[in-house]
Amino acid sequence: MTEPAHSDAKPIPFIDVEAQRRRLGAAIDDAIARVTEHCQFILGPEVRALEAELATFCGARHAVSCASGTDALVLVLMARGIGPGDAVICPSFTFCATAEVAALLGATPVFADVDEATFNIDPTSLERAIAKAKRLGLKPKAVIPVDLFGLPAEHAAIGEIAAAENIFILDDAAQAFGASYHGRPLGTFGLATATSFFPAKPLGCYGDGGAVLTDDDELAATLVSLRVHGQNATDKYDNVRIGLTGRLDTMQAAVLLEKLKIFPDEIAARNAAAERYGNALGNVAVVPRVPEGRTSVWAQYTIRVEPGRRAELADALKAEGIPTAIYYPKPLHRQGAYERFPYADGGLPVSDQLADEVISLPMHAYLDEPTQDRIIDAVHRALSR
Ligand SMILES: Cc1ncc(COP(=O)(O)O)c(C=O)c1O
Question: Under a CB-based contact definition with an 8 Å cutoff, are residues 158 and 126 in contact?
C-alpha cells in the first residue's frame, strides 16, 4: 500500500466529464455547429438519426426521445391512461422520479423492497406490494423496476409476476442504458423502457434528455403525439390528447450521436475499473457483484460499509481530495413527499439498511489506474483503522 496522499493532492473528480470532452471535443463542437447552421432546433434531423441509432443499439423497434428521463417515465404512464385508483409498484430504494411520475398522474405508488445483493426490486416483495395494493382497493396496473447503478433488475422473475398479475412493466433504465440481461440489451424488457441522458449518466448529453424504447408500434405513436401536446399525427393544430412539451432538443441529439460512437468503449472501460475496485476492496467492504448472465454499465460504484463507519470513510477520503456520494441516504417511503404512500407488508428493511450503509466511489470511463489506486489505498487506510 502506498503512503497516504497529502491533503494538497490534486482533487479527483467523481465523474470526469472533462476527460470525455477532451477525447471528443472537436467532434462535438462540429456537431453543435451543424445544428446552429441548419437552425432546426426542434425535432431536427439529428433527433431522428439518434432515435434510429438508439433503437439499433439496443434492438428495440422504436426509440422515442424526450426531454428527460422523468418525461420518458411519465409519457409511458400517460399513454397507458394511468391515474387515480391505479397502483404503480416500484422500489423504495431509488431516485425519486421513479415514484414521482405515478403520483404526478394521481395514481398511487406502492413501494416494494430491494434485494440486498443487487439493490434492485425484490420479486417476493413485488408480489407483496401487489397484494397490498389490492387489499387497499387499488388496481395494480404497472411495475417500474429500476436497473439501479447500471445493473439490470431480475427481469425474468419480474416478467413472470407481471404476466400472472396482468400488469405492464415500465423498466426504469435511467442509469443502465447499455447493460444487458442474459444476452438481451435493456430496452427490450416489458412494455417500454425509460432512460435518461442527464450529464452524469453513463450516456449523458450536455443538458437534460431522455428516451423511451419500445417494441409496441401503437405506444410509440402515442408517445410521439404526447411529447408535443398530444397533437394529431397528420394535423399539428388538432390536439387529440392532453400532452406536454417533452421533446429532446436537436443540439442534445447531436451531442449524443457523437457520444454513442464511443459508448461501447466507455462501457468496457467502466467494467475494467469496476473489476479493479472489486478485486482490491472486497476484503474491507461489501463490493457489488454482477450476477451470472447480466452486464452492468456501472453508473455508480457503490460499496457497503458498517453504518457507523460511513461518515468517517467519506471524511477520510475527502481529506485526500477524493469525493464520494450517497445514493440514497433516505429510501422513498421515508421521504416527506412519499411517506403517505403504501408499501409492502413487513416493511422495507433492506431499503432501510442500504440507506445507512451505501457509499459510492468515483466511477467513470476515464479513471486511470494510478488515480484508482489512490482511491483504493485511501479506502483501505480509512477502513483498516
Ligand atoms: C433511477 C432514475 N429514474 C429516473 C431518473 C430521472 O431522469 P432525469 O433526471 O433525466 O429526469 C433518474 C435520474 O436522475 C434516475 O436515476
Answer: yes
